[in-house]
Amino acid sequence: MTAPLKLAARGDKLSVLCVGAHSDDIEIGAGATLLQWKADGIRIDMLWCVLSAVGPREAEARSSAEDFLQGVERAHIETHHFRDGFFPAQSAEIKTWFEELKGRFQPDVILTHNGIDAHQDHRLTNDLKPRLVFSDIVMPGGISGLELARKVRRRFPEMPIVLTTGYSEHVGGTHGFDILQKPYELRSLAKALQVALKEAVEAELLAPPA
Ligand SMILES: [Zn+2]
User: Fold this and answer.
1) Which of 14, 56, 60 shows the shortest CA–CA distance to 37?
2) For residue 28, how far is its CA from the centre of ligand 1 (angstroms)?
3) Bigger pLDDT: 1 or 133?
4) Where are the domains of the chain?
């Protein structure tokens, strides 16, 4: 048994985006986590999206989501009609939907498929999530890039992070983050992002099963 994700405490608000390729994928993959969060008294603002809910499976997806989301502070269910088994051939349409979604919902957490799943629809759905964080160390007001990187690493240890700075005094004290020194050429940026993504994929493949 794996410990539940502790992202919030009783009374905290957590906005959650669930994206499942097919009817019942979210329930199977994330249902217990959601029920635990509800039982823990976390105030969930949920957007529940099923990408391929066609024919009778649409009503099935909706009624099951409604059951899971009973008692949740705010919930919205979206069902779409992308063709089951053909997601790679519809990637432009799916990406367009996701880009539009980013403008209207900014979740604290995304629950979706594993990137090394054998099903091509599941892999493509996973590809929609953020893959990497790239930030300047010095940002106007508020949080610095280094603080941002530490927060991201604490909550999402598998997320690759690349930082950049024009101030050479930062380069020494960055505690394990990859730093790209400014000014850099596009070729160097591409290389740094490629290396970070490749390391993340290797770590995911080598991780013991949960
Ligand atoms: Zn599925």
Assistant:
1) 14
2) 9
3) 133
4) 13-126, 133-206
Task: Give me ligand 1 centre to Cα 199, in Å.
Answer: 27
Residues 171-209 have pLDDT tens digits of 666 667 888 999 999 899 999 999 998 988 888 788 776
Q: Give the Å distance between the CA of 133 and the centre of ligand 1.
A: 28
Tokens of 113: 């498929």
Q: What is the CATH number of domain 13-126?
A: 3.40.50.10320
**Residue 44 CA, ligand 1 centroid: distance in Å:** 24
User: How close is the Cα of 117 to the center of ligand 1, in Å?
Assistant: 10
Q: Is the pLDDT of residue 1 over 50?
A: no
Q: What's the token pair of residue 135?
A: 């930030």
Say which CATH superfamily domain 133-206 falls into. Answer: Response regulator (3.40.50.2300)
- Residue 198 Cα, ligand 1 centroid: separation in angstroms? 26
Give the orientation angle of helix 25-39 with respect to helix 56-68, to 10 degrees: 20
